[in-house]
Amino acid sequence: MKGYQHNFSDMHQDIYFDVENRARKADKMLRILRDHLGDDLKGLHALDVGCSTGGMSRILGEHFGRVTGIDIDTKAIEHANANFASNTLDFRVGDAMATGLPPDSIDVVICAHVYEHVPDAGRMLVEIHRLLKPGGVCYFAAENKFVFREGDYRLPFLSILPKPLAHRYLRLAGRGDYYYETLMTYWQLKRLTRAFKVVDYTRKVVLEPDRFAAGDIVTAGSFKQRIALAMLDYAYWLFPTYLWLLRKP
Q1: Burial class (CB in 10 A: 0-12, 13-18, 19+), 204
Q2: Cα 181 to chain center, whole Å?
Q3: What is the mean pLDDT of residues 87-91?
Q4: For a FRET experiment, which of 31, 37, 106, 121 has its CA 20 to 30 Å from that of 64?
Q5: Beta-sheet strands, E only, within 83-236
Q6: Could you read off the pLDDT of 219-231 as tens digits, one per residue?
Q7: Residue 74, Cβ neighbours under 10 Å: how many?
């Protein structure tokens, strides 16, 4: 089993301390969740798994009745508590594979680009299933292993290399010493989420980027949008990122 990434926010400060980036991603989540659950989220308790520095949790906290953020990164949680904690928004150092929270206690789980970072993604999904109330949903954004440019380190083909080569590639590029991430193919992701009913928002978001605040991904009416829609229709297994809601039966 691979180890934990305890100081991930330090390595990627350009992402996790970027207020505008965090706000844009939170807006996309909220629009998808509202489309599925309805506009009023105030009666719901959300858990942000892998919340890092708390930038997205802070925005979610303005719309949900209560938000809990957990992350294994102690320094990131200290930043979140110092800057964003409130009566309805709390942060804790926690293991996504074993949160210690009560079963059937969470209405919505946010798991956005987290599965590849944990030592065992299967255990994390079992834990999410345990935590969700019956009928509860998990916002699951997942990068495809067959992505051209890996999302965290921005290096072409990094995710498809065998680990020893990936470590060496990362060092040669000056981006780190060890490639912890383990991305999955579409078919592996389907197996990973098989305990849930999958509500796929990927095509909806690409088709209506303005409605879902996805202008950073694709522009309505653009050539890129036409290519993306064609890929979704004919080569879905190659699409770089999937946006799924996982509903617990």
Answers
A1: middle
A2: 13
A3: 96
A4: 121
A5: 89-93, 106-112, 132-143, 197-200
A6: 999 999 999 999 9
A7: 12
